[in-house]
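Page 42, continued from yesterday. The earlier attempt failed because a stray header line got pasted into the input along with the sequence. Redoing it now with the clean sequence only.
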Amino acid sequence: MNTIITIGRQFGSGGKEIGEKVAEYFKIPCYDKELLTRAAKESGFCEEMIRNHDERPTSSFLYNLVMDTYSFGYNTSSFVDMPISHKVFLAQFDTIKNIASEGPCVIVGRCADYALHDFKNCIHLFIYGDEEAKVKRIMKKYDLGEDKARDMCVKKDKQRQSYYNYYSSKKWGRADSYDFCLNSSVLGVDGTVKLIVQIIEDFEKRGN
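This time it went through. Structure tokens are written below.
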């Protein structure tokens, strides 16, 4: 097993659970919130700060628009003047690369597919679902009414879309941004896991 699997996901699609089950099958690590803890340790930022900016659009659009005139590199002047949201993104970006360089794993969200675009041994997946199935899942998971669950799905997906589209050169949830897009509502979580396992095993046979 030599493959790194990145999973983008719609809220309520079961993407995290699917990632965990795929990782369990192949006996490899799965990084979701764990990535934030490690990014905090490696960057020196406090974990609360990283969590506050996790997969969220930048807080001040105009300020960040101005800051875009700076390079995204690490030369001292641009990094010092960079808004904290950019610094946190770069800290996660570096941690994702460090994790991937250590061996096969599953990484959920956080523009991991973009961070690892130059890694050849990667499969980039996007998990989505039918709206009603996602709403029911969130109602059950968080003990919410239908309206609140539906609002939560919309809000979370807007956050993830804004974050991904802002920091990457691709479009969140669009088929040509990933290797495979899978509707978890069709086969359910376990069926989707089986399909991904088959994809990974075939990818491994090709020598990725």
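Notes: The chain has one domain: 4-55+91-202.
Reminder to self: strip header lines before submitting.
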